[in-house]
Amino acid sequence: MEEDSKLDPDTQECLHFISAFLAMEPTHSLISFARECGKGLITNQVQDFIWQYCINKTMNEDNRPSDLYMKNFLKKVIVEVESSCIEVMDELYEQFSYYMTSVKDGFERGNSRVYKRISFLFPNVSSCSRVEKIVIPLQCSVNMLEGDTGYCVDKVVCRPLHLCSVWPSSLFLSEFILSHPDIFSNKSCFEVGSGVGLVGISLAYVKASKIILTDGDLSTLANMKHNLELNQLKMQTKMSQIKCKHLPWESASEEELQGFKPDIVLGADVIYDPLCLPDLLRVLTNLLSRKISNGCTKDKLYDADDDALLLKTIPNDCNPLESVDHDNKFGSQPDAAKERQPVAYFATVIRNMETFDCFMKLANEAHLSVLDITESCKPLNLLPYMRSYDRTSIRFLRMNFS
């Protein structure tokens, strides 16, 4: 094959193809991308590209897609090529034969882990055909044999069964962080239910000053720490201060929670179990309510004419993308009065409307203002190759004391 007939891995079609493969997208999506690269067919050039960049290049990497996933992908490729009466490359046949003899058709449920590389692709204004990217490798639990990054929940209580999978709201929240780094840069950020750690790694890229990642499941926490270590060498910017903490909502104390003092609280798909909502709301109110020197909390109002503190809330018509700054300038005031009021950003898929209504009721009783900013705060589409990721199912909420 002549050199000039090879596909360019930096073109949009090829980059989307590689990114989908590394993220372990469903194999039918990969076949669709392969056809796009070959103008409708998986040509000899496309097969060579698959061999060079999907098989040969990743074969000796520790964080490559699973062998079972690669076996299923190659099987689909071979069937597609043969059905088009095109000759299949010998290398693809040989690699598939190797997987047929060495890879079993199943995983040991609950113990298996796979590696996915999530590529966030940023449009480059200087050239429409080129993009810049951030690639984040993650160790995840096996969710679907096709490698989908969807979620798996218990149908009775909507409790996640695979705590180390990449949930869609986590992808959305990470897109939002990377789309608007000015909101999170130099801020202290706290995430409840951090899962694989994707949101925390995204916060590190935008240089959040402090990042506290929490989860109530010890195995999830151990996997999260592994992912943070896995990504330290991938960081292109100076690492922020990151801490991982075991924090079951039901046992977290008021003193412990108020000691974190975050500027921004984040959560992805944590509104799923009505039994957990009272504890979640208690955690939120303690994180968003800061104590000041006279013993009162910052969510209360005082009269400035009496030399007391005037602490404002977020107006409903405020631009949700602006950093929330409630500094008051009435001459000399205590430093505590000049603190920014904490704000929370939650991304969630509403799978059960009764559960969501319960959350809204408890939030109202806790004097938390919940604003749906889904339409006004859409992040950039940084995952255009991830066709299994349904953004339309996600609601984006901003919360603070009313």
Compact overview of the structure:
InterPro entries: FAM86_N, Methyltransf_16, SAM-dependent_MTases_sf. By secondary structure, the chain is of the alpha/beta class.
Largest sheet: 7 strands, mixed
Classify the secondary structure makeup into a structural class. alpha/beta
Separation, N- and C-terminal Cα atoms: 67 Å
The strand count comes to 9
| DSSP helix fraction | 25-40%
Order of helices and strands: HHHHHEEHHEHEHEHEHEHEE
In terms of DSSP E residues, the strand content is: 15-25%
Domain FAM86 N-terminal: 18-96
Protein name: FAM86 N-terminal domain-containing protein
Keywords: Transferase
GO molecular function, one term: transferase activity
What attributes characterize this protein structure?
402 residues; alpha/beta; seven-stranded mixed sheet; two-stranded antiparallel sheet; 12 helices; 16% strand; transferase; FAM86_N
Helix and strand arrangement:
Blueprint: H1 12-22, H2 27-37, H3 44-56, H4 67-83, H5 90-102, E1 113-123, E2 131-141, H6 168-179, H7 181-184, E3 188-192, H8 198-205, E4 210-215, H9 218-232, E5 241-246, H10 254-258, E6 264-268, H11 277-288, E7 343-349, H12 353-365, E8 368-372, E9 394-401
Parallel strand pairs: 3-4, 3-6, 4-5, 6-7
Antiparallel strand pairs: 1-2, 7-9, 8-9
Helix pairs in contact: 1-2, 2-4, 4-5, 6-8
What report would you give on this structure?
By secondary structure, the protein is α/β, with parallel strands linked by helices. The chain is built from twelve helices and nine strands. The longest helix is centred in the first third of the chain and has 17 residues.
